[in-house]
Every structure is written in structure tokens, then in C-alpha cells.
Write a structure and sequence with these properties.
about 425 residues, alpha+beta, Antithrombin, Chain I, domain 2, Alpha-1-antitrypsin, domain 1, elongated
């Protein structure tokens, strides 16, 4: 049996699932992306998905949870069991509906109520995040680009406009794909204050492209407690047990929300931005214990439940900390097609299996590309980040160390404190 998941849980769960996929590709590489950008962009497309295409997208984006019988007796390392139950239910549904005429089939295969709740929740969160705020700059914009020769369902266009404030722009991919690419890149650059340039590389779209989805997010926030530039010093950043790279290390002594997680030998520090609506959470292992970055154990054990438990504010205390954090900048680009397929979103990319009948009556609509490009800069003033997507423990011992020295690889998450939405996630392993 499947049930809908609250958006905050879905967002964080998808964030950690995707993080593991991107991290496993190269355990020593920097990682930075916006799970919110990616999931909201794909959620727009899911409005037009039906049948197994919709089910796969819902599962990968963690919008639905599977309730398993005798759940306490089922091992956590058996993820296939939950998916099999959901698949069987939808297979029966699809078999019954495949005998219906198309117009009746489309009516029956509209999104489930729980998934309607997902889109309503996205709309509410987007309204909150896009609200003017004098403390920080945060802007989120969505847009769909569709081949002009395709007929798109009116309800789909109305729903994307209603929930995501996204317009569908008709472009001519068939004869003017390069012009369309330049047009898309120009819009993304404008929405991200010039930080995301050339989201779509040359030849990423071509005459066969029928649909490109874009979500652009830009954030610039100043620290609630700023670093003094004069306190920044030259330091060595340990990228593994043997090698170091030079960095500019920012330093300050202030009170921060802090906790220690003895079971994984890790510290967590929260640094709020002005207004305290947004914070950055830094997960720092005490030492480099493995042969790569020192993050393998943390990454392996980090689940949604542990993320929530470890960052509970009633268990994180305010204490005076001598903080050292490197000044850093990252820019990453990901083609997510294969990553999403590996996570189970297969049919959306297969013209023989995709079902986007809620989007267009054409039977050959397929998700062509999901490209994500992100940028982050952390300095003494605060953080500037941008991204665009194309497509309780039994015991806890709170230890209060005198220092939090991020001179070796760490994970970080920029989170909206009220909605618990993870806007950005990253792994800093190696300075430029």
C-alpha cells in the first residue's frame, strides 16, 4: 500500500538518495546541487505523466511511501520489497485501464489525491520562498520549453501555471534548435543573476528534442554572524590522509548551534543567515578515518531519519565555538538522465514506454534531457548560490569542543528552517 509523503520528507529523502548517486560516481570529487530545484522541475513534468511513468517518478522523487506489512520484521536493506508491492498495485490498475478508450483512460489516470497534495505543497512552499525578504535574496523560477508542433493538453498548462507559476514557451527545436538553446540559456542566466551561464551546452538539444524543463534558483545570504576579513588566514586543507591544498581559512569565535554525534565520530554545526529563516548545516567528521576523504562512513549511514534526528534543535545546544571554515567556490554540471534511470525513473526517457498523455495527446512525447548546473560561493560575508535544472537514538552525548575546524572534507546543506526544505546540498572535498 502506498501513501503520500509530506513534501519536507520527500525533499530531504530525494536529496540524500541523489547525493549518494552523485557521490558514488567519484568518492573524492566535490558535489553541489539543488535537490529542490531538481525535484520541483520534475514535479512539473509529473503533472503530465500517467501510469507507470507517473509511478516511477513519484517513487524516485519520494512523493509516495510504501507501507509494508509487518514492517518491523522487514530488514531496512531490502528496498525492492517496497517497490514490488507498489508495482503490483499499479500493474493491476494499468491492465484494467488499458482496455478503455483513450479519452476515458486519461480521465482515470489523473494524478492521485496524494500527488495533488504534493503539487499544492510545492505551490505553498514556492510562495513562501519567493516572498520578498530584506534579509536575503532568494528567487525561484520555472519554465517549460516545448516543440511548437506538439499539442499540449490545456489542463496540463493550467496546472503548471497554477502550482509552479510556470509558463510553457513554444520553441522550434526541429529547425532552430540552436536558437532555442540560446534563448533558454539567456533566461536561466537572467534568473540566476548571471551565475549560471550556458546551462545547455552546444548540441544538448537538437531537432529530436520535444520538451525541456527548467527550474532556476538563486540565493544570496549574509551570515547572521559575519567573519572579519582581517581574521582570514592562509591554511592547509587536508584532502585525504596524505595530501593537502592551500586555502583561505575564515575564523571567528561565536555562539553557534552545535552537536556531536559520537556513533559516527562527527560534529554538526548550524550557521544561520540574517533573518534566521535559512541556515547552513555543516557535517564534519572529527578525523579522516578512511582512505579517501573521510566521508565514506558518514555518507553511508546518513538517512532521512538520521538527518532529522541529528539536526533536532532540542538536541543541538548553543555553545561558544572557535570556528574555522574555508572560503570556497564550486560550480558543478550534471546530466541527470542516467542517474535518474539508475534510481528507477526509466520509462520517462523511453519513447516506447513513456506515458505523458496528461501532457499531450501525441504518443511519442519523451523526457529528452534533465540537466542541472549549480554554483556556490562561501566567503566572509555569507553565501551566494544558484542552480538550474533542466529537468530518536537511544543515547546521545552532547560534547562541547572548543573548536570546529573544517580543515578536511565535509558535507553541507542549506535549509529553510520553517519548511525544512533542503535548497542546496554539497560535499566539499578539494579546493580549487
Amino acid at each position: 500500500m502506498a501513501s503520500s509523503a509530506p513534501l519536507s520528507k520527500a525533499n530531504t529523502s530525494f536529496c540524500l538518495d541523489l547525493f549518494k548517486q552523485l557521490s558514488d560516481n567519484d568518492k573524492t570529487a566535490n558535489v553541489f546541487f539543488s535537490p529542490f530545484s531538481i525535484s520541483s522541475a520534475l514535479a512539473m513534468v509529473m503533472l503530465g505523466a500517467r501510469g507507470n511513468t507517473q509511478t516511477q517518478m513519484s517513487e524516485v522523487l519520494c512523493f509516495i511511501e510504501t507501507l509494508k506489512p509487518n514492517q518491523a520484521n522487514i530488514r531496512e536493506d531490502s528496498p525492492m520489497q517496497s517497490q514490488m508491492q507498489t508495482r503490483l498495485q499499479f500493474q493491476t490498475q494499468l491492465q484494467q485501464q488499458s482496455r478503455l478508450p483513450n479519452y476515458l483512460r486519461n480521465m482515470c489516470m489523473k494524478p492521485q489525491d496524494g500527488q495533488d497534495d504534493v503539487h499544492t505543497s510545492f505551490n505553498q512552499l514556492l510562495s513562501t520562498l519567493n516572498a520578498p525578504d530584506i534579509q536575503f535574496t532568494l528567487s525561484i523560477a520555472n519554465r517549460l520549453y516545448g516543440q511548437q508542433s506538439y499539442q499540449f493538453v490545456k489542463d496540463f498548462l493550467e496546472e503548471t501555471r497554477k502550482h509552479y507559476e510556470a509558463e510553457l514557451e513554444s520553441v522550434d527545436f526541429q529547425t532552430s534548435s540552436e536558437e532555442a538553446r540560446v534563448n533558454i540559456n539567456s533566461w536561466v542566466e537572467e534568473q540566476t543573476q548571471g551565475k549560471i551561464k550556458d546551462l545547455l551546452a552546444k548540441d544538448v538539444v537538437d531537432s529530436a528534442t520535444v520538451l525541456v524543463l527548467i527550474n532556476a534558483i538563486y540565493f544570496k545570504g549574509s551570515w547572521d554572524k559575519r567573519f572579519e576579513v582581517d581574521s582570514t588566514v592562509d591554511a592547509a586543507f587536508r584532502i585525504n590522509k596524505n595530501d593537502t591544498k592551500p586555502v583561505k581559512m575564515m575564523c571567528q569565535k561565536s555562539e553557534f548551534t552545535f552537536t556531536s554525534i559520537p556513533e559516527i565520530n562527527c560534529q554538526i554545526l548550524e550557521m544561520p543567515y540574517k533573518g534566521k529563516d535559512l541556515s547552513i548545516l555543516i557535517f564534519l567528521p572529527n578525523e579522516i578515518e578512511d582512505d579517501t576523504t573521510g566521508l565514506e562512513r558518514l555518507e553511508k549511514e546518513l538517512t532521512y531519519e538520521k538527518f532529522v534526528e541529528w539536526t533536532r534543535r532540542d538536541l543541538m545546544g548553543q555553545t561558544k565555538v572557535e570556528l574555522r571554515l574555508p572560503r570556497f567556490k564550486m560550480e558543478e554540471t550534471y546530466n541527470l538522465n542516467d542517474v535518474l534511470k539508475g534510481m528507477g525513473m526509466v520509462d520517462a526517457f523511453d519513447v516506447a514506454k513513456s506515458d505523458f498523455s496528461g501532457m499531450s495527446p501525441a504518443n511519442n512525447v519523451v523526457l529528452s534531457k534533465v540537466v542541472h548546473k549549480s554554483f556556490v560561493e562561501v566567503n566572509e560575508e555569507g553565501t551566494e548560490a544558484a542552480a538550474a535544472s533542466g529537468s530518536i537514538l537511544p543515547e546521545r552525548s552532547i560534547m562541547i569542543p572548543a573548536t570546529f575546524i573544517a580543515d578536511h572534507p565535509f558535507l553541507f546543506f542549506i535549509q529553510h528552517n520553517t519548511n525544512k526544505a533542503v535548497l542546496f546540498a554539497g560535499r566539499f572535498c578539494s579546493p580549487e
